[in-house]
Amino acid sequence: MDAQTEGYAAAVSSETETYLDRVADCAGRLPGAIDAYGVDDDAFATAVDDIAAAESDCDDALRELRRLLSERSPPNYTDVYLRADDVARLYAAVDEIPNAVERFARELRAIAPSLGGARAIVEEMASLAVEATEALAAATGEYVESLLVEGGTASVGPAVEEIRALESAADRLKYEGLAAAFDEAATPDALVVRELVVGLDAAIDAVEDAADQLLVLRSGKP
């Protein structure tokens, strides 16, 4: 590998690690925000602000990655360079995770409903979202790294299966949460909780969507 290619590979590897760490960090702040909700208003407000800041950090890292991927001259010989458009789409799919996390947190603060019996379920769904995001970040990092070294390989199938199992568990919890909301609350309140639960589920769906895209890309890797 020539020096130019090595430099490009090192830059993409470093920025990818930064980006994925920031995505996992953003998702990882969600359980703390939910724990503080309705218990400590100041701590909850701070947690939501921290999530918003973490999402902005993800955006900054993604912009740098897109800049690297768009560099076409002079050429280099990593598979990332040769498959830049595919990799950019993968990064964009991953970006839906912090977007969904921030949207849920902001809506929870803005609407401020009583979660009632759905609270424990929302807490568990948030934990599943964190676990799934961490699995995706690890698998994505391994895949991108495999594109940066000659003869690199990555086994993403087990992580994808784990993420699918976590998403299925979250789906079951979602319906339990909806049932709890409608059992305990007047219809308008239950509808508000429903929208929040569905919004939280969207974060986990985003993880699964990115994982599916990762699996497709890995299957097409030379």
Content of β-strand = under 5%
CA radius of gyration: 19 Å
* Mean pLDDT reading: 88
Sequence stretches where pLDDT stays below 50 over 5 or more residues: none
Write structural notes for this entry:
With 222 residues, this protein is mainly alpha-helical. Helices cover 84% and strands 0% of the residues. α5 (84-111) packs antiparallel against α8. 41% of the residues are buried.
Task: From the structure above, extract its key features.
single chain, mainly alpha
Blueprint (SSEs and pairs):
Elements: H1 3-28, H2 30-36, H3 41-70, H4 79-82, H5 84-111, H6 119-148, H7 157-184, H8 187-219
Helix pairs in contact: 1-3, 1-5, 1-6, 2-3, 2-6, 3-5, 5-8, 6-7, 6-8, 7-8
Could you provide a short overview of the structure?
The chain is mostly helical and 222 residues long. It has eight helices and no strands.
